[in-house]
Amino acid sequence: MDPGWGPLHWDRTGRSRRVNPKNFLRTLCRFISNPLLASVLRVALGVVFIVASLDKIQNPEAFATTIANYRLLPYKVINGIAIVLPWLEVVTGTLLVLGVWIRAGTMIVCGLLMVFSIAIAQALARGLDISCGCFATNPDSEKMSLWTLIWDLIWFSWGILIWVFDRGHYSLFKFLNMRKEEITSL
Amino acid sequence: MNELKKIAIQVAALLVFSAGLAFITNAARDDRLPLIMPFPPAYQCPSSEKPGLPIDVPVALKLFGKPGTAFVDARKRDAFQQGHVEGAIPIPYSFVEPLSKEILETLRGYRSVIVYCNRHDSEASKLLAGELAQAGIKGAVYLEKGFTGWIQAGGPYTGTAPEGHDE
After folding, report:
1. Between A and B, how many residue pairs show a Cβ–Cβ distance under 8 A?
2. By CA distance, what is A106's nearest residue in B?
3. Using only C-alpha atoms, what is the Rg of chain A?
4. CB contact under 8 A, B35 and A80
5. CA A27, A28, A32 angle in degrees (round to 5)?
6. Whole-angstrom Cα distance, residue A66 to residue A9?
7. Does the pTM exceed 0.80?
8. How much is the mean pLDDT over chain A?
9. How far is A12 from chain B, CA to nearest CA, in Å?
10. Contacts of A163 in chain B (CB under 8 A)
């Protein structure tokens, strides 16, 4: 039998085979490029953004304080950003969950995550002892740490996978089209 | 190319829609946020939410030259180089730049730290004094009437006198 036939293959002797790196990579690529995985990540990312926006929509003044804490932007633009950003998050998050305008929503989400990552990285580098403002506007909530940055980068990588592999196989439009075809075929 | 164009139009539409929704809901709120943050910003953190305490020029003149008293110039570097209170330390006030540890260590050794600028409303010196007080610097106050008031009262200075208060 060809040695290295599949990473989980057990030969007749019952001894485990060594994992063949080529097959392992092929399996990994197949897993990552699975449209179902991309759709699951899309919905998860959408939910993350919707949840993140809720407190900020309810407390725009506190969110403006959080943005000011980063000491990154001129103060005149802070209120405008505090008003618009949460709504942008909730709208793009909803569209991602529903699978509508997937690539546009993913582009916005990845752009936001890149901006957040830069803001967090510079705050950590400058030693600013502030809360992230990612999910809560309370300045006394958990202070930002390296894990905050790591999570942003993880979500950014989800966005990349969604951009590359999600073609809307599991989306609202697909579902509605299927229902339409079922109805017309009756 | 068509695909990218379509995505760009969708992104623009999303941005416009989100911004419109945001501004409409903000306008409908009782506690609406002003679109432009007013100066002085009430949201400075981690520094003080309140501005620093004032000191008037005659009192500052008495403290001038005494050990344990420092004058801090909160104006920009070029304004400082044109003229400043004799012996003043330049610490230009910046909203986006928090005070460095070195500056705070330098000022901790003083009993009185008098911050001045040359604005009509003394805003820069007020905020810097508040930030210093919040950071634990003892005796941090701001000079009422600023550098112009100091010169008019006959306070010692280096360089040229400004023509008047800044806006």
Report:
1. 93
2. B11
3. 22
4. yes
5. 120
6. 53
7. no
8. 81
9. 52
10. none
Separation CA B64–CA A25 (nearest Å): 74
Query: Does ipTM exceed 0.95?
Result: no
Among the listed residues B48, B31, B62, the one whose alpha carbon sits nearest the alpha carbon of residue B126: B48
State whether A71 and B34 contact (CB < 8 Å).
no
User: Quick check: A72 contacting B, CB < 8 Å?
Assistant: yes
Q: Side chain identity at A58, as an amino acid letter?
A: Q
What confidence tens digit (pLDDT) does each residue in A56-108 have?
998 888 888 788 777 778 878 888 999 999 999 999 999 999 999 999 999 99
Residues 6+ positions from A65 with CB-CB distance below 8 Å? A137, A139, B43, B45
User: What would the DSSP string read from start to end of A155-181?
Assistant: HHHHHHHHHHH--STTSHHHHHHHHHH
Bigger pLDDT: B97 or A111?
A: A111
| Interchain contact, B25 vs A126, CB within 8 Å | no
Question: pLDDT tens for residues B55-76?
Answer: 888 889 999 988 889 999 988 8
Tell me how far apart the alpha carbons of residues A21 and A104 are, in angstroms, rounded to a whole number: 36
The Cα A77–Cα A69 span in angstroms is 14
Read off the tokens for B8.
């760009």
